[in-house]
Amino acid sequence: MDVVISGWEEQQAELDGLISPVDPEVWARPSRCDGWSISDVVLHLAQTNEMALGSLQGRFGEVLTELTTGLPPSKDVDDGAGMMVDHQRGAPPAEVYARWKTGVDELRNSFWAADERDKVQWVAGNLSARTLCTTRLAETWIHTNDIAFGLGVTLPASARLNHIAFLAWRTLPYAFQRAGRTMTGPIQFDLIGASGAGVRMEPADDEAQTIVRGTVLELCEVAGQRRNASDTSLTAEGPDAAAVLELVRTFA
Prior knowledge:
Nonspecific Lipid-transfer Protein, Chain A; Four Helix Bundle (Hemerythrin (Met), subunit A); globular
């Protein structure tokens, strides 16, 4: 788990480098998230970090109640996240930044104190502390790039994206189930990482029936729903070829 936490920490540092020092005018700019400013994206990350901290401390339900009190029932996870941001939008950027930074510091301590096998509650159900950390890495990476887009900055790919790609691969059964579909058989990722080295994720026991090829960066962008697979160099062959590129995801 140490390497995953370190990757998560690196991602927080990259984001911090974009948003600190706080500039109110910059924070009002639109991000890549439709309808959200840069400030809104940081607020969303602060809220979800607080949920993750509650998860590790065994009080996920309590934190979620605090964040959603007074809100109507949500249709899905995305709808709920949007309502939480709408509900708390408007604080000065310095306050939003301080809230995010405090949450990162507290979450860091809780991740390092956790056993990677600990089962914790999350939006999609129970998962391990290691998986929760990878999920937070994935979401922070997605939103760091949403903010970078609003700033006109292009960030380089990094080796920590391998953790995100592995999360996308390992949770394919969940992605298919969520869509009401069934995987025909095992799926393999043969990808090229940020360094140019090959990155393979394959079933341990059974031979893969579907193989996805391309770059780790593009796989993560598609799994984060920031690009369509048809607009990338990703290819797939096998009975689940079209489905896996459509359904792969890194969030609930």
